[in-house]
UniProtKB/TrEMBL annotation:
GO MF terms, alphabetically ordered: nucleotide binding; oxidoreductase activity
Source organism of this protein record: Cereibacter changlensis
Keyword Transcription regulation (UniProt): no
Every Gfo/Idh/MocA-like oxidoreductase N-terminal domain range: 18-134
Record-linked Pfam families: GFO_IDH_MocA, GFO_IDH_MocA_C3
Protein name (Swiss-Prot/TrEMBL): Putative dehydrogenase
Keyword field: Oxidoreductase
SUPFAM superfamilies: Glyceraldehyde-3-phosphate dehydrogenase-like, C-terminal domain (SSF55347), NAD(P)-binding Rossmann-fold domains (SSF51735)
Domain GFO/IDH/MocA-like oxidoreductase: 150-268
Length: 348
């Protein structure tokens, strides 16, 4: 007999949740390794259209069943699904898994537009299932140190500068197809930057957006996949966020990643070390003096996935904080729209 929602919640308190993984590339496999090491759930199903990816994952979880896609794992009625497929499939697969009664942990972006994201979040609310997205940089020790300062010590935070330049760019062809990816570096990296900047401030209302996008050094059109993006977001209360991100920028190092918060009573920053994608430090600024708050290394990459597994094991259901994802993607939509408008006003 199929369990009702309340009965399912009681069942989860008496047994370990059963978790499935769909998409077993580097990210999916890394998140699986982190969740397996935490030993909070049972991994029961693995799916990917690439048999070699499935075989590699099965070496880590030989007890799991295998398949090629979401339908295969849903047949096993898992309690949760981790989705790490190409971006074009995220929203639809998330909704299908939620409708099947599963909690979902999805790679970013949850959707290619605010509309897709809204549908996924509304589905999670309706079926009362946990929904989380792998916005992994918010789990670094460096960025975790910022919200308490922003709330109590920095005074009124009136400006945030957020930067993510990647000297390489993605290696999968679908990233460069706008219909499949939803966008370029803004969708790939800007989604992290916006979360990094907005979350410590409590996700304030964005009242205005100005933006410019470039593709291979020229102003991008709506058909292009941008490789450089710069935007200014005006916030309710008068604050401002300046965002810049890129793929394949001649930056002299592998990556430039930073988020600087400027307040009336002080400042705070998180920055990567020596061009690293993985090592970060956080600082508190007092005038011309700086105090170090955190130092690397910090094993943060799988932390969001493990947090999801822990919340699932605790029987948590829909979290209203998921509604922030709609606002996040509304900002991205508005940046693209503002850049299109700027390109029309000032054509190349």
């Amino acid at each position: 007999m199929q369990l009702t929602l309340p009965e399912t919640a009681r069942a989860l308190t008496t047994r370990r949740p059963r978790l499935a993984f769909v998409g077993l590339g580097w990210i999916g496999r890394h998140r699986m390794e982190a969740i397996r090491a935490a030993d909070l759930v049972d991994i029961v199903a693995l799916a990917d259209p690439d048999p070699a990816a499935v075989e590699t994952a099965l070496a880590l979880s030989p007890e799991a069943r295998s398949g090629s896609g979401l339908a295969d794992v849903l047949d096993l009625q898992p309690d949760g699904v981790v989705i790490a497929t190409p971006s074009a499939r995220h929203a639809a697969e998330t909704i299908a898994a939620l409708e099947a009664g599963c909690a979902v942990f999805c790679q970013k972006p949850l959707g290619r537009s605010a509309g897709e994201v809204r549908q996924a979040v509304e589905t999670a609310r309706r079926v009362d299932r946990l929904l989380a997205v792998d916005l992994s940089y918010r789990e670094t020790a460096a960025l975790r140190a910022i919200p308490p300062l922003a709330a109590r010590e920095l005074g009124r935070v009136f400006a945030v500068d957020a930067t993510f330049h990647n000297a390489y760019g993605p290696d999968k062809p679908w990233f460069y197809d706008r219909a499949l990816s939803g966008g370029g570096c803004l969708m790939d990296l800007g989604v992290h930057l916006l979360d990094m900047a907005l979350r410590p401030l409590g996700y304030p209302e964005v009242t205005g957006v100005e933006a410019h996008l470039f593709a291979q050094g020229r102003p991008a059109t709506s058909a292009d996949v941008e490789d450089y993006a710069v935007a200014t977001l005006r916030l309710a209360g008068g604050g401002v966020i300046r965002l810049a991100c890129s793929w394949k920028l001649q930056a002299g190092c592998d990556a430039v990643i930073s988020c600087d918060f400027h307040g009336t009573e002080g400042g705070a920053s998180m920055r990567n070390l020596e061009g690293s994608f993985y090592d970060f430090e956080a600082y508190r600024h007092h005038g011309n003096r700086t105090e170090q708050l955190t130092a690397g290394p910090d094993d943060w990459g799988g932390r969001a996935a493990v947090n999801f597994a822990r919340r699932l094991a605790d029987g948590q259901r829909f979290d209203p904080a998921a509604e922030e994802l709609v606002g996040l993607h509304d900002c991205i939509d508005r940046i693209y729209a503002a850049a299109d408008l700027a390109a029309c006003r000032d054509p190349a």
